Amino acid sequence: MSDHYTNEPTALVLNYAESISTGSRGLEKASDCIPFYDLLQHRIEDGRGPTGGSPGSLTVIAAYGYPAYSVATTATSGWFGRKVYCWYKDRDGKSLGDAVESAVYPQHAVHCCRRPQAIYLEAKYKLSHCLTLPAGEKSAWLLLTELVEYNKVLGVEYFYIYVEDIDNYSQKVLRSYVESDDAEVIRFPTNNTVDFHFVAMQECLYRSRQHSRWVAFGDINDRFTMRGRAILLDVV
Length: 236
Fold this sequence. Notes:
GO terms for molecular function: glycosyltransferase activity. The chain is α/β, with parallel strands linked by helices. The protein is about 20% helix and about 25% strand.
């Protein structure tokens, strides 16, 4: 699990079980802490999502803390609407209280409660950009450099770049942007059969919240066209 920009310095682990024993205390549920949980439950019961398929191993990409709740993003299909449990551990691997019962919704996200140890951070950037690079060994460094430098002129301050496999020279270009604090690279598990682009965009939505006030989504060959000397922040 990446904690490079997570707002919650605790490890959030997802697990599936039919039931969990908590003695006489009763199990805490996500519905106890998420203000819009009724809407999530309504969407699940309506079946507004991919309900078919067999669930694979539940792979967590990262976890993010918000004022009232936290969210874990996953890279696994077949879990839509299924019950899961959120477990919390500190940096030393020690448990932080009991598990919280929740469910997978949307397709690659699980909403959980927060723990007192969580830290709330204000947005660091005004405008960021979420980007997925083409899968495979196709060279992407030229289009990548053009996109980053062009968008920096338009006022984009930070880039979340999602990759699977990429050629060596493009990796060097990515590394230079990470070292200059212009970007964060999120490597997607290559042994998954899910739609990489779809998962990345959903994951980036949660990753950028509380970290960037505004975020743009686009492919490597997309460009914003502005009139005169306007920048993107002028129109958001």
